[in-house]
Design a protein that fits this description.
heterodimer; A: 468 residues; alpha/beta; seven-stranded mixed sheet; 14 helices; 18 strands; globular; B: 186 residues; Aconitase, domain 4; 7 strands
Chain lengths: 468, 186
């Protein structure tokens, strides 16, 4: 009998079976259910409608509510939606809720937090989930957001669901899943200084297409993946959904375990290990030494090209942020290119979480605690002329028209975000180029799509950034 | 479940993602509020670039400005319909606008699952691509269980794939009703 992939092992264990086969439908027990301000109100509505007004969630310690999408906007419906989450959390006695306390029912734009260490607000859910200890190997997480697959970087099965599915799980702790066949992506060699995981995943999506992994699991492995920081692995699994993948998953190693040991708010977990004789739907292999900095041109994440080939493309704006490209290591990559230079086009920076924002204030360019005479990452970005906003999803998905960095005109933008279908960042006539933080920073300096190899010669150290 | 669906087709291309189906700026409406829910119908498909809105002509509004319902009942599309975000507002918006079924080559899985589990609309798959052989405005007659679509305007018949695994959930009306029927929910 053939072995099982990590994904198959996790689904088997959570459905009480010794093994599962791709294509089987199984009912699984869910470990964590996450929702946010965009999909929470609808989920809560369905939960009470279907289970009754007196219904209780299946486990108040396993539901995580993280407002992150529409926080810094004057749209009063958005403030009201945060209040719906607050009321639900209180009524149900939920343990894990991260409140943007500065959002009130008063009209107008909420004032952002002054100090990222002194707010309960955490920023983007996919970044905050591991930071706050909700991510563990071997578990199943569902979230009402397609980028929930990010948590697969920690060796868990994590996938996005809609409101109805989330409401069902809220009441029962269960969901039905079709066991996906797995596609294996092996990366040989070590990550060179001019590449980040963003280049790898853009190459993968460009190769297989935006529907290339539909209904399938994407397993990322090889010494190339082992050489990535945990945060960079999150960039890979984060964008599994951009190939249509059900989940993305990475092997668990010491980097993973060190992080989870430090952060997890539960003491135990089981580490799944890919069986050497597991079966794959397809296998792909790349050699990192031969790969180039990539972009996805408008209007699809699979519209791949090399940054070098696009060097004639004139840009109006650069954007560094989101669950995909707003982590502290992404900020360090960008800052190392921008340091001592001035951006030529408006460049918006949005920390992925308030912890990232805090680290931007306390770490130096090498990802170490900054000395008294050293500049912080945030200082470097500000001195380069970037606009730095408060953490959150912000303009990655456009959002309300007053969202920080939103493309309200048909601009050409290069961005570290995840999706560039028409209208994703606002105006549907705008063109978005997806790229790594290195490429976005280099492009911000020239005003044209720019290969970062012109600016990176030595490896960029990220120190303790994002490590534990 | 309605087994024969008739109505006018609205034709879209490939990779119609959820931001095109319902742009993010409208997600502040609460779908659980009956008054606010109607606005998802008003803005359904409003993110589709004008040139691709209502193929093969383009520039055809899916919902006339100021209205909550579309004059079309069936969406015909190409590959990977509903890719992108997990927002359930996408099938909900189409259903609010009056869409009863989508016929695409295939779907992004979260959109498909939301359509089925939430009982919003039928996500049907055509055996061959219908996009270039159907014009926006054509009158269609969809025979869900018999597995075909009749284009009455052009007198062409297209095969559709069986619903398979999800048919019992669709017949029950959604995942809650299915689970209740099968004894999972008390």
């Amino acid at each position: 009998m053939a072995g099982m992939t990590m994904t198959e092992q996790i689904l088997a264990k959570h459905s009480g079976r010794a093994r599962v086969e791709p294509g089987e439908n199984v009912w699984v027990n869910v470990d964590i259910l996450m929702t946010h301000d965009v999909c929470g109100p609808g989920t809560i509505g369905i939960f009470y409608e279907k289970f009754g007004r007196q219904a209780r969630v299946w486990d108040k310690n396993r539901v995580v509510v993280i407002p992150d999408h529409y926080i810094f906007t004057a749209d009063e419906k958005c403030h009201r939606n945060v209040q719906i989450l607050r009321d639900f959390v209180k009524e149900q006695g939920l343990k894990y809720y991260y409140d943007p306390e500065f959002v009130t029912l008063n009209p107008g734009m909420p004032s952002p937090y002054k100090d990222p260490t002194k707010t309960n607000y955490k920023g983007v859910c996919h970044k905050a989930l591991p930071e706050e200890g909700h991510v563990r190997p071997g578990e199943i997480m569902l979230g009402t957001d397609s980028h929930t697959c990010t948590a697969g970087a920690f060796g868990m099965f994590a996938t996005g669901v809609g409101n109805t599915d989330a409401a069902f799980t809220l009441g029962t702790g269960k969901t039905w899943l079709k066991v996906p066949p797995t596609m294996k992506f092996t990366f040989r060699g070590e990550i060179p200084p001019y590449l980040t995981a963003k280049d790898l995943i853009l190459a993968v999506i460009g190769e297989i297409g935006v529907d290339g992994a539909t209904y399938r699991s994407m397993y990322f492995t090889g010494e190339g993946i082992a050489s990535l920081t945990l945060e960079d692995r999150m960039t890979l699994t984060n964008m599994a959904i951009e190939a249509g993948g059900k989940n993305g998953i990475c092997d668990v190693d010491e980097k993973t375990l060190a992080y989870v040991r430090k952060r997890s708010n539960l003491p135990n977990w089981e580490v799944p290990v890919e069986d050497p004789d597991a079966r794959y739907f397809a296998e792909y292999e790349w050699d990192l030494s031969t790969m180039e900095p990539m972009v996805a041109k408008p209007h699809s994440p699979d519209n791949k090209d090399t940054a070098r080939n696009c060097s004639g493309v004139k840009l109006d704006r650069a954007y560094i942020g989101s669950c995909t490209g707003g982590k502290i290591t992404d900020m360090i990559f960008a800052a190392n290119i921008l340091v001592g230079n001035k951006v030529k086009i408006p460049t918006y920076v949005v920390p992925g979480s308030t912890e990232v924002h805090q680290d931007m204030k306390t770490l130096n360019l090498k990802g170490q605690p900054k000395g008294p005479n050293e500049k912080s990452i945030e200082q470097v970005l500000l001195e380069a002329g970037c606009f730095v906003g408060p953490s959150g999803c912000a303009a990655c998905l456009g959002g309300p028209s007053d969202t920080f960095g939103r493309l309200n005109e048909p601009l050409q933008c290069i961005s570290t975000t995840n999706r560039n279908f028409p209208g994703r960042m606002g105006d549907k006539r705008a063109g978005v180029y997806l790229a790594s933080p290195l490429t976005v920073a280099a492009s911000a300096l020239t005003g044209y799509v720019t290969d970062p190899r012109e600016y990176v010669s030595a490896p960029i150290e990220t120190g303790i950034a994002g490590v534990v | 479940m309605q087994t024969i669906i008739t109505g006018k087709a609205y034709v879209l291309g490939d990779n119609i993602d959820t931001d095109q189906i319902i742009p993010a700026q409208y997600l502040s409406y609460n779908p659980s509020d009956p008054e606010e829910r109607k606005y998802f119908g008003m803005y359904a498909n409003s993110g589709v670039p004008e040139a691709e809105a209502g193929l093969p002509y383009g520039n055809i509004p899916f919902v006339e400005p100021g209205r909550f319902k579309s004059e079309y009942q069936i969406v015909v599309a190409g590959k990977n319909f509903g890719c992108g975000s997990s927002r359930e507002h996408a099938p909900l918006a189409l259903a609010e606008a009056g869409i009863q079924c989508v016929i695409a080559e295939f779907y992004a899985r979260i959109f498909y699952r939301n359509s089925v589990n939430g009982g919003y609309l039928l996500p049907l798959e055509s055996v061959i691509r219908m996009v270039e052989k159907t014009n926006t405005g054509d009158e269609l007659e969809v025979h869900v269980l018999d597995g075909y679509v009749l284009n009455k305007t052009r007198n062409i018949k297209f095969e559709i794939k069986p619903l398979g695994d999800v048919l019992p959930i669709i017949e029950a009306g959604g995942v809650f009703e299915y689970a209740a029927k099968s004894g999972m929910l008390k």
